[in-house]
Design a protein that fits this description.
With about 260 residues, the protein is α/β, with parallel strands linked by helices. Helix content is about 30%, strand content about 15%. The protein has one domain: Rossmann fold (3-Layer(aba) Sandwich), CATH 3.40.50. The strands form 2 sheets. A 7-stranded parallel beta sheet has the order 1-10-9-6-2-3-5, sandwiched between helices. Strands 4-8-7 form a 3-stranded antiparallel beta sheet, with helices on one face. It is globular and about 50 Å long.
Length: about 260
């Protein structure tokens, strides 16, 4: 696992956006997996700026979704489909046709999960998947003790996750759905490059357990240790519990520039 320590969230966003731009330059029709929440916003802002400046042409790129609430009506502003369209697809100048995600309003939710797994495979697989991390080490909505071989499936949100997400629903936890569709850990691990961004002291314990702890289902993000190309980008606060922080700083500082992330 590659660990990159950056000064702040903006620097992390710029670094990852350039990695995404470099990928699209090599593979114009790349399938980019995106995550929601506040953490990845600096990435999307930096990538959109590159598009506006003509530094990268994303006209053929495709965007796919990591997870989706179950039961929100189509077009609900806090459905993850709406969020991704608003924060990623539209700022990049892409059409909705470039976007794919699971159907959280389907009558047959399990069927929708299986269909999305098939769709990702038929699209050629995810080239780069962005990830965030929860304070308990979850990725996507794979909560602690999720199977490390799991596929896209329905999950019940923990109370803490619903409390954390209430800020997107006017602070009203009763509006937060109880269930989600999420790519499973096994599905996530099939992406060619995994990039996790974590910022803030509140993520420090989870980052340390992910990077330096054992691979264990109690810390779902630790499964990234099994991946051939996983990059963890953290600010100084999120890196504060890493025993090998100085080693990671030295390693990245001396990495050949042409290798990128």
């Amino acid at each position: 696992m590659e660990v990159v320590i950056v000064p702040d969230a903006k620097a992390g966003g710029e670094l990852i956006a350039e990695a995404m731009a470099a990928l699209v330059r090599r593979k114009p029709d790349a399938l980019l997996g995106v995550a929601t929440g506040s953490t990845p916003l600096p990435i999307y802002e930096a990538l959109a700026a590159k598009v506006r400046d003509g530094a990268v042409d994303v006209a053929r790129a495709r965007i796919c979704q990591l997870d989706e609430y179950v039961g929100l009506p189509a077009g609900h502003p806090e459905s993850y489909r709406s969020v991704v369209l608003r924060e990623v697809v539209e700022p990049l100048g892409l059409s909705e046709a470039a976007f794919m995600g699971p159907d959280g309003s389907a009558e047959d939710v399990q069927g929708a999960c299986e269909a999305y797994d098939r769709a990702l495979a038929e699209a050629g697989g995810v080239d780069l998947q962005l990830l965030g991390i929860g304070t308990d080490g979850h990725i996507g909505f794979n909560e602690p003790c999720s199977s490390l071989a799991s596929r896209t499936r329905i999950k019940t949100l923990t109370e803490q996750t619903r409390v954390d997400n209430a800020r997107f629903f006017d602070g009203d936890i009763d509006q937060v759905p109880h269930h989600v569709i999420t790519q499973g850990i096994g599905t996530i691990l099939e992406a060619r490059h995994l990039v996790l961004l974590a910022t803030g002291e509140g993520k420090a314990d989870a980052v340390a357990a992910t990077v330096e702890g054992p691979v264990a289902s109690i810390v779902p993000a630790s499964a990234l240790q099994l991946h051939a190309h996983a990059t963890v980008v953290v600010d100084e606060a999120a890196a504060s519990k890493l025993k090998l922080a100085d080693y990671f700083r030295h390693t990245y500082a001396n990495k050949p520039a042409w290798q990128g992330l």
